[in-house]
Write a structure and sequence with these properties.
The structure is a single chain. With 187 residues, the protein is mostly beta strands. The chain has one domain: Lipopolysaccharide (LPS) transport protein A like domain (lipopolysaccharide transport protein A fold, Sandwich). It has one helix at 2-23; strands at 45-55, 61-73, 78-82, 85-90, 93-98, 101-105, 110-123, 126-138, 143-153, 157-167, 172-183. A six-stranded antiparallel beta barrel has the order 2-3-6-7-5-4.
Length: 187
C-alpha cells in the first residue's frame, strides 16, 4: 500500500512538472541579463595619482586638480574622479574643493561633486568652509550651486540651510531656504 502511494505520488509530480515545462515559453529558460549601463561602463582610459589643470576658453588656468584616479568615458563625454582635490585662485582669493568623487562634464563646464564635499574659500584674511553632500561647480564662471542641506562656517558665524548659489572667489553667497544662523562672540 505504501509502495503504491509513492509510485502514484511520483507519477503525479512528474506529470505536473512535464505539463509546467510543456506550457512554458522558451524565453523563460534563457538566462536573464540585466545590464545597467552606468555601473558596467568600462573606462576608455584611466590614470592613477594624477595632477592636471583645466584651462578656460580665454587661455587662463581655471583650476588645478589632484586625484587618486581619473577614468575617461569618451562616449558619455564625461570624466570620473576619485577623491579629487581642486584648487583655483586669483588676486587675493582662493578656493579649494574636495569630495569622495566627482564627474566632469566638459561640454557644460561643470563638475558634479558628491560625498562629503568640502569647499574652503579664502578672501583676504576671511576664510569660510562649506560642507554638504552634493555640489555643482561651474568652473568657467567660478559659481557653485547646491540644492541639498549645507553648513557654512566662517570666522564667527555658522549658517545651515537648504540650497545655495555662490561665487566664493568674490565672497558672494545667495542662500535659498530654511536658513539658520548662529553667531559666536567667543572662540
Amino acid at each position: 500500500m505504501i509502495k503504491q502511494f509513492f509510485i502514484i505520488s511520483s507519477a503525479i509530480i512528474m506529470i505536473t512538472g512535464f505539463l509546467l515545462v510543456w506550457d512554458s515559453h522558451p524565453e523563460s529558460f534563457l538566462e536573464k541579463k540585466h545590464i545597467n549601463s552606468d555601473k558596467n561602463l568600462i573606462a576608455d582610459s584611466y590614470m592613477r595619482q594624477a595632477k592636471t589643470s583645466i584651462f578656460g576658453t580665454n587661455g587662463q588656468r581655471n583650476l588645478s586638480l589632484v586625484t587618486q584616479k581619473i577614468e575617461l568615458f569618451v562616449e558619455k563625454g564625461s570624466t570620473l574622479f576619485e577623491k579629487p582635490f581642486i584648487t583655483t585662485s586669483s588676486a587675493g582669493s582662493s578656493v579649494q574643493l574636495s569630495a569622495k568623487s566627482a564627474v566632469l562634464d566638459r561640454e557644460t563646464s561643470k563638475i558634479f561633486l558628491s560625498g562629503d564635499v568640502q569647499l574652503r574659500s579664502a578672501l583676504g584674511i576671511e576664510t569660510s568652509t562649506l560642507s554638504t553632500e552634493k555640489l555643482t561647480y561651474l568652473f568657467d564662471l567660478g559659481l557653485v550651486e547646491n540644492e541639498a542641506f549645507f553648513t557654512l562656517k566662517s570666522n564667527n558665524i555658522t549658517l545651515t540651510g537648504n540650497g545655495i548659489t555662490a561665487q566664493p572667489m568674490n565672497g558672494n553667497y545667495q542662500f535659498k531656504k530654511n536658513i539658520q544662523a548662529r553667531y559666536e562672540t567667543f572662540r
